[in-house]
Please model this.
Amino acid sequence: MRKIRQYYWFVASFVRHHLRGLILGIIGGIIVTLNFSSLIRLVPLKPTEYIGRPGSFTLPQLPLEIQQLVSDGLTQVDEAGQAQSALASRWETAEEGKVFTFTIGNGEKWADGKAVESTDLEYALDDITIDRPAPQIISFRLNDAYSPFPTVVSQPLFRRITTRNLLTKRTKIIGTKDFVIDEVRLRGGVIATLALRSSEQSRVFRFYPTEEDAIVAFKAGKVDRLEDISDPRDLVGWKNVTIEGTTNYDQYVALFYNTSHPDLASKSIRQALTYAIPDKDVSGERAISPISFKSWAYNPQVKDYESDPEAAKNLLDKEFSDKDSHLPPLEITTTQSYAPLAEKIVDAWKGLGITVTFKIVNFPDTSDYQILLIGQKVPSDPDQYTFWHSTQPTNFTHYNSPRIDKLLEDGRKTLDQDERKLIYQDFQRFLVEDAPAAFLYYLKSYTITRS
Model:
């Protein structure tokens, strides 16, 4: 009994002297238990890859390849620009292309296990009425027929979810794939860091204002890989660095002529200038039209304007048959990336007796230029109404052709793909003949990885 009393008084004395610590320990244990799922994130159990990319993005503007790591759209667009099934197992068209109804496939789930339902799908589409008559059916009613609409809903879809425990509440953005957007840090209203986490790995994207900034970060060891780099620069000579190049058939470089400028209103002058450009494929694979080489509607039979100084001279001689007439001075506007190419074009045009200069700007003004040397993104569908139709403010060449307008109008209303292909092949043939732009080459991009 004496030993039991001794143990009792010992324990009682210990508790009395350490009561505060014991209470805090119990409370701490409870907090850790309740917040275990949040705290475990801080333990580096999964491999993490740090990726650098140039560019300024908000969440809706994230590069498509990053969005596609997290989710699918109702459809997906293949390499040829055709819509294929994704979350939607099938779709139907009614009222001559004004109504599109999509059926969500059985078994499609969000990353948290919830079934994908039509009420989950949020779209901000102007002049479109959306109806959700059943959990697996969503219907879009357009004011006008628009045959490429299935490619519009290929945009990946997301849900915000909130996880709660005793002391914390966190919001995540999930999709239909294993990766979730776990953390977003902003800098000046655009994304600085984006963390994606899956059950097996983490990828942290760090965005930089310029390629130079991204390359400096890579050299400093802040990222393991660089993506979407147009010029590897001096990294080409670095040891333990792998550089892989990819041709982007959805981006081309071209000289755009301001056809509303009096010195460039003549088709013959634009054709002559285009013929005079040397080595149009010197920086990448040759592009000959505004529609991608990979597109189901591509026309390989358009005029290619291979370098032909003699043809250029003959066209200019016919245009300026009067000995006292000549082409006024021209100016090319471009960015630093295309300065070497601009110099070659200037030299070639000077060889024809043309007075020409070029200027470098950071952000070209498409509302105020004579000739513009820039890269251009190609939409997945061959519909290029917004680029070339005479009524569109985004038609920055101010190109005006009733024939082209009619082809573009018909192409976006026609549902039969064979008929659409004929329309867009004619569109390419007549547009390239008129030469509102000199199509040069497809852009390349590089992925640079530390070995």
